[in-house]
Specification:
InterPro entries: Sialidase_sf (IPR036278), WD40/YVTN_repeat-like_dom_sf (IPR015943), Xyloglucanase_GH74 (IPR052025). By secondary structure, the protein is of the alpha+beta class. About 15% of the residues lie in helices and about 35% in strands. The strands form 16 sheets. Strands 14, 15, 16, 17, 18 and 43 form a 6-stranded mixed beta sheet that branches. The chain has a 5-stranded mixed beta sheet with strand order 60-66-65-62-63, with no helix packed on it. A hairpin with a 4-residue loop joins strand 57 and strand 58 (about 715-720). The longest helix has about 40 residues, at about 870-910.
């Protein structure tokens, strides 16, 4: 074959191949300006890990949270702002550089209070601008960083204590040091792969003296072990070159976790709370750790050492020290006696004292930050830290829809997706106590199901009657005891509203909302006795039920076929029945590449095919941090992975779109990931969406809102994800594409809302505007681009600011036309900011991009709940139009007066002999103007008497903003004001025929030109 023909053929094939490749958008190129909104709440807040205050500025305080990132206060703790959204939200420690406290801040990620539901970190970060920007400084595999100590005399010398992996062995543990500001790190204290540094502190009087508490520990899904022969307290006096144990006076045998603290005002006084089998409690040394004496064995000091190991000494009084604990313990006699801190949320994790006020302190708890001004006797909660930790959420179909969910140590709640004035604390309602998990609304009745840890209580709450009944399944005589997961699964049938499911090791079903139960399965778990009924806690027994294992964890009834039910267990089984529970098949052996016994965290039964389901597996409780998400289309006979390298973090939940089965939403430890092609490509959603752990996702069918329950940043909503389901390859190749959208509703609302103070968190409402949503293949950077709304005849109604980003653009339209031209005056008038609403109907959307024009349409509808008749609407529109025209007529009249006065004043200034004609004209025009607009004073203390403009403007704004038919008083008032306007125009014509005529005649005689006055149309459009 001719070489030329071969080359041409190959080129043709290559071009066809390139052309046929799918367009793949990632990140913000895909999402454009679709944006999440965070609705909190903050009234139950969340777990605080670490508090740090500025060494010289008492107004600056940092709070590191369990799953909500780092927050900063610049007003003494009155309010906080998030400063760490783009990074891992689980925080271990925050440290402020004492030599540059305004700028240099370090953050170690990964929670250090190692309960079963902790999140993980991804390294060490540093900011050089007070938290505005962050740079990673290493330790990517550390998982948990407990301590950061900075040499106050040399900021380049920093020590980092790495607690390390919780669920497995790791050599990334111990104490590390840098001498060049974090460029390089040296491991200066290492024990073994099971023992990490749970605390490192520096002597404030000598930066070469360091104390390091090393802790041997391990957690599994079914147990926890604290302590061992390798737990020890070490001291270095040579900046970490050498270390020695300092146990003289400590208990013999294996030790557990230490809490240690130096008295800043007396550095040789060191305190340590020691976890041990015997003689556990508070020890004191007055010779820098050379000898120790047991002072106190109070329960509040030794309870749950893995969870409470923070000891803080007052900065100026060595006799005042506080220990974190169930209620927090404070001593004022050097540790001899303690009493509880004031009333606040239980579980106290950290305390800082105000640097100036010896009686002021801040406390971090499982329920947020508290402040005290009387030494801890009374506590006041910070009301604007929305770091609540949801395990699960669900939604109902009310308008606005409600969100239901359970929180870590903060009960169960439900609240609205929107509320007048924003979503406030008082909008949330409690439906459970303790650790809250799943909360589900009955599909047709005003009944809510909720639960607390381990199904200790399963409540059916009748909202109307305010009546609660406990309905948990109970063991039956002669049969096995029931094993419920700490996070016990519940589900409500989509086919029978009163049908309610719960899972122990068996699947239970009730046909009468929990009054009666029956089992419809055998034990669906591995029933491995090695993972059951074990003593947990290690040195300190901690058997709370949180480690109950070999249980059902997720239940999914097919929305297509009620007989198809999926069950996933915490020990790795994926069970399915196709006959309502008569027979079951374990399909997990059909999943390739999945480690055995990996926790089945969620199963999503497809809305498109009854044989299709998605299974999300979470292996982090066995030390496996990989992402596992699989799909089956044949009832589990075969499975395929839909995971790519784009996904970061182990996953917990997946949500399939109800319309487009290729649109999937995945919640991981580090945020939300979205695919529009069935899992071939994933992108992390970052628009106002922090990198927080997403534990559960629901999709509201009426609004198409994606609702997320996060374990650290409360509820987060992406309003109307429908554009994402319309993104196909046919759309992606277009330069511009308008998305189909539901008709926009003009909500007839105008009530009062709000009442929270500026220091209370208020969740954002969704925007009530109409949305114009379109896709741009490329970002618009050069040339003119406009977006207008037109009527069906092509007349422009309003011009909007177009979005120009690559990807999805959302432009809001508030249903308003252009506002009226307002007469110029000394003050502004509020009616001038009011534009009339359009009538319901169809409108054109016109996008001009350079020389190209693209059109779409938008439908506007009146509120379907409205009682207003069409004749009333016509009357409203008529009077609004009359007042609008009156406003512009007045504006034009005042404009003509001003132009004539300006001309006369210029002539008078340049030609003193002209005053005989200018003075009468100026006097007459000014006198008329003073009856039309305010010409003196201001809008506040020197407010002048309202004139025609102010009265007309007030009436216009009042009528334009209302929905109903105008009142007789409004109609009559319009007539009165229009009569005054007509009289004013007649007065101007008289002045024009006399004084202005004489002025113009003089101008003509002296070679001057009369005032330049635009015609009304040009003036209005100016």
């Amino acid at each position: 074959m001719n070489k030329t023909i071969i080359v041409v053929a190959l080129g043709t094939l290559l071009s066809m191949s390139i052309y046929s490749q799918d367009i793949v958008l990632k990140g913000k190129e895909l999402f454009g300006n679709l944006e999440a909104r965070q609705i909190g709440p903050a009234l139950m807040s969340g777990r605080i890990i670490d508090l740090e205050n500025h060494p010289t500025n008492a107004k600056i305080i940092y709070a590191g949270t369990a799953g909500g990132g780092v927050w900063k206060s610049e007003n003494g703790g009155a309010s906080f702002s998030s400063i760490f959204d783009d990074h891992a939200q689980s925080i271990g420690v925050v440290a402020i550089d004492p030599s540059d406290p305004d700028n240099t801040v370090w953050v170690g990620t990964g929670e250090i209070w190692t309960r079963n539901s902790v999140s993980i970190g991804d390294g060490l970060y540093k900011s050089n601008d007070g938290g505005a920007n962050w740079k990673k400084m290493g330790f990517e595999n550390s998982e948990r960083i407990s301590s950061i100590e900075i040499n106050p005399k040399n900021p380049n010398e920093v020590y980092v204590g790495v607690l390390g992996a919780l669920w497995g062995d790791s050599e990334d543990r111990g104490v590390y040091k840098t001498t060049n500001g974090g460029k390089n790190w040296e491991q200066i204290l290492y024990v073994n792969e099971k023992t990490g540094a749970n605390d490192v502190i520096m002597d404030p009087s000598n930066p070469n003296i360091l104390y390091a508490a090393m802790w041997e520990f391990r957690r599994t899904a079914w147990g926890f072990n604290s302590g061992g022969p390798n737990s020890a307290l070490y001291k270095s006096i040579d900046a970490g070159k050498t270390w020695n144990k300092i146990h003289n006076g400590f208990p013999k045998g294996d030790l557990g976790r230490f809490a240690i603290a130096i008295a800043p005002s007396s550095p040789k006084t060191v305190f340590a709370v020691v976890e041990s089998k015997e003689d556990k409690g508070l020890y004191r040394s007055d010779n820098a750790g050379a000898n120790w004496e047991l002072l106190n064995e109070d329960f509040g000091l030794v309870v749950r050492p893995f969870y409470f190991s923070r000891l803080v000494v007052h900065p100026t009084n060595p006799d005042i020290l506080v220990k974190g604990g169930l209620f927090g313990s404070i001593s004022r006699d050097g540790g001899k006696t303690f009493k509880n801190l004031g009333n606040m949320h239980a579980d106290i994790h950290d305390i800082v004292f105000d640097i100036n006020n010896p009686d002021a302190m801040y406390v971090g708890t499982d329920g947020g930050v508290y402040r005290s001004w009387d030494g801890g006797a009374t506590m006041d909660m910070v009301d604007n830290l929305p770091v609540s930790q949801f395990y699960h959420i669900s939604v109902d179909n009310e308008e606005p829809y409600n969100i239901y969910g359970g929180l870590q140590d903060n009960g169960s709640w439900w609240g609205p997706s929107s509320s007048p004035g924003g979503i406030e604390a008082r909008d949330w309602n409690r439906v459970g106590v303790g650790d809250g998990f799943r909360v589900l609304k009955h599909p047709t009745k005003n009944i809510i199901y909720s639960e607390m840890q381990g199904a200790q209580n399963v409540w059916r709450y009748d909202v109307d009657k305010n009546y609660t009944k406990n309905i948990q399944p109970l063991p039956i005589k002669g049969e096995a005891d029931l094993r419920f997961n700490w996070n016990a699964p519940m589900a409500v049938s989509e086919h029978h509203p009163d049908r309610f499911y719960m899972g122990s090791q068996f699947l239970h079903v009730s046909e009468d909302m929990g009054d009666n139960w029956k089992k419809i399965s055998p034990d669906l778990t591995t029933n491995d006795p090695a993972k059951q009924d074990k003593e947990s806690g290690g040195i300190s027994t901690d058997k709370s039920g949180a480690e109950t294992h070999t249980t059902i964890f997720t239940i999914a009834e097919s929305p297509i076929d009620e007989k198809v039910i999926w069950v996933g267990t915490d020990d790795g089984n994926v069970q399915v029945t196709q006959d309502g529970g008569a027979t079951w098949t374990n399909t997990v052996t059909n999943i390739e590449g999945l480690p055995k016994n990996t926790w089945v965290y969620h199963i999503e039964a497809s809305s498109h095919n009854k044989g299709t389901a998605y299974a999300v597996f979470d292996g982090h409780a066995s030390g496996d941090m990989n992402t596992y998400v699989y799909k089956t289309s044949d009832f589990g006979k075969t499975w395929k992975s839909i995971v790519t390298e784009d996904i970061k973090g182990f996953a917990r939940n997946i949500q399939e779109d109800y319309v487009n089965e290729d649109l999937l939403f995945l919640g991981t430890e580090f945020g939300l990931f979205v695919t529009i092609d069935g899992g071939q490509n994933w992108s992390r959603f970052t628009n106002n969406m922090p990198a927080t752990a997403v534990h559960f996702i629901d999709l509201q069918k009426k609004t198409n809102d994606l609702v997320m329950g996060t374990h650290g940043r409360g509820v987060i909503i992406i309003d109307d994800i429908s554009p994402l389901r319309q993104l196909t390859q046919e759309v992606l190749v277009k330069d511009v594409h308008f998305f189909e959208s539901k008709p926009a509703i003009i909500k007839e609302e105008g009530g009062f809302g709000g009442g929270s103070t500026e220091l209370q968190f208020v969740g954002d409402n969704p925007k009530a505007d109409a949305k114009i949503i379109y896709y741009l293949k490329k970002r618009h950077t050069f040339g003119k681009m406009t977006l207008t709304i037109q009527d069906q005849e092509g007349n422009e109604i309003v011009s909007l600011v177009p979005g120009k980003a690559k990807g999805i653009n959302v432009v809001d339209w508030n249903f308003r036309k252009k506002g009226p031209k307002v007469a110029a005056g000394k003050t502004f008038t509020f009616g001038g900011f009011t534009a009339p609403r359009v009538a319901a109907g169809d409108y054109k959307v016109v996008l001009k991009k350079g020389k190209k024009q693209y059109e779409s349409s938008i439908t506007i509808k009146n509120d379907p709940t409205s009682l207003i008749t069409e004749s009333d609407r016509t009357a409203h529109q008529k009077l609004t139009k009359q007042l609008f025209d009156d406003m512009e007529d007045l504006a034009y009249l005042v404009y003509k007066i001003d132009q004539q006065i300006k001309k006369a004043e210029e002539l008078s200034k340049n030609d003193p002999t002209a005053k005989k004609v200018t003075s009468p004209a100026i006097a007459a025009l000014t006198s008329l103007k003073e009856t039309l607009v305010v010409t003196t004073g201001d809008n506040y203390v020197a407010e002048a008497e309202p004139q025609l403009r102010e009265k007309l403007s007030q009436l216009y704004a009042e009528v334009a903003d209302q929905f109903e038919k105008p009142s007789y008083a409004q109609i009559e008032n319009q007539g009165v004001l229009e009569t005054r306007l007509n009289e004013a125009e007649a007065s101007y014509e008289k002045i024009e025929s006399k004084q202005i005529a004489k002025l113009n005649k003089y101008l003509q005689k002296t070679g001057g030109a009369p005032a330049e006055i635009l015609d009304k149309e040009n003036f209005i459009n100016k």
